[in-house]
Every structure is written in structure tokens, then in C-alpha cells.
Amino acid sequence: MTIGDFVAKAAKPLPVIVLADVSGSMAQDGKIEALNDALKSMVSSFAEEGRLNAEIQLGLITFGMTVRDHLPLTPAHKIDGIQRLDANGPTPMGAAFDRVTQLLEDKEIIPSRAYRPVVILLSDGHPTDDMRGPFERLASSERASKATRLSLSIGSDANEAVLRDFSNDPEAPLFFAHDAKDIRNFFRAVTMSVCARSRSAKPNSPVKIEYRPGDDDDDLLELDL
């Protein structure tokens, strides 16, 4: 057994799951292109992190024409790119909530030794299916209820009430993206936070983010961990 094998087995998973709205409206104003770019950068940054304390894993569930595991939960250093997202269809957010609850409750995919998962919801519209029941199951289930939930409201037509209810971190209220640039900046801030958490002596600490819509891409985003 090599030292690399020992480190890989010793590190606990730190799951990050993105729930991405890919409905037809995301095709407008460069939103889906910005999301593709942001996810690519997130994967690259996660893959570069060490794995002494925590192994960052990334999963992507998309909801539009269908709800699907666009990227099954995978250690970031093993991800060889993400198939680009296309925007079409309605906004079946409730079905996406049910899918992420199933994932979080599956001990074969997310073992009990894993650190607290981070679930990121982003949407630019209103749910087109029943989401109240699925959300209640997500918020009350044994393991899924312990995940840190963040949400990003994109544009002026997003359902802010639903997105605000989804977020459960008092240090991270509902975030807003006014344009495509803000989507990239939000993902950059979350990426920095998760990477810092993975290096922390206490990776289960809540994610705390300082994010300001309208910042230039090159501006330093403040982080409080």
C-alpha cells in the first residue's frame, strides 16, 4: 500500500450537490452559458484541493425537460469534465427535491462518516410541479435535513419565497444573481468557501459566504469561515 492509497482512504467525503434549473428560460441572457463556465471552474478548483482532511465530491442534478443526475456524486479529482448543459422545458423543482432527498438518504452513496453535505439550488423561475410535499420530505428526513442548503435567485422572475425557504443557513440568506456575471461570481464564492472548509480542522463547520452581486470577476470575494 502506498502513502497515496492511505490518504485517499483516510479522507472523509465532503459532498457538494448542485440542483440546477435548466428550464427554457435559462437559455436567455447568457445564463446557461455562465452556469456551464461556473461549473467547469468549480470542478477544476475542487480537483486541485488536497485530501488530507476531506475529499470534496461533486454531484449535479438538473431539472428542466426531465430531472436527471447530470453528474453522479463523484470525487472531484476523478471528474473528467462535465457534459455541457442545455436549457429547455419546464421547471420540475419538486421532482428535483425528491431526487436529492433520495441521494442524501442513500448510505451506499453518502456514507455515515461523510461530512455534512452542501446542497446548492439555483433557479430563474417558478416551480411547474408540486414542490411543497417534496420540500417537506427533504427538510424533515433523517439525513437530508442535516445538509447545508444554499440558494441562488437568478433574474427578476425567480420565485424568491421558495428559494428563501430552501436556504437553511442563517449565515447565508438567499443570494441573488442579476446577470450572467453574478452566476459566475456566486459559484466562485461558494467554491472558495468549500475549499477552505475542506482544509479546515473542522470541515463540518457551516459554510459562510460573503458575496456581492455586481462584483467584477477579478474582485476578491470576502470569505468568513
UniProtKB/TrEMBL annotation:
This is Uncharacterized conserved protein YegL, contains vWA domain of TerY type. It comes from the Bacteria. Residues 15-190 form the VWFA domain. It holds the Pfam family VWA. InterPro entries: VWF_A (IPR002035), vWFA_dom_sf (IPR036465). Transmembrane segments: none annotated. Gene3D superfamilies: von Willebrand factor, type A domain.
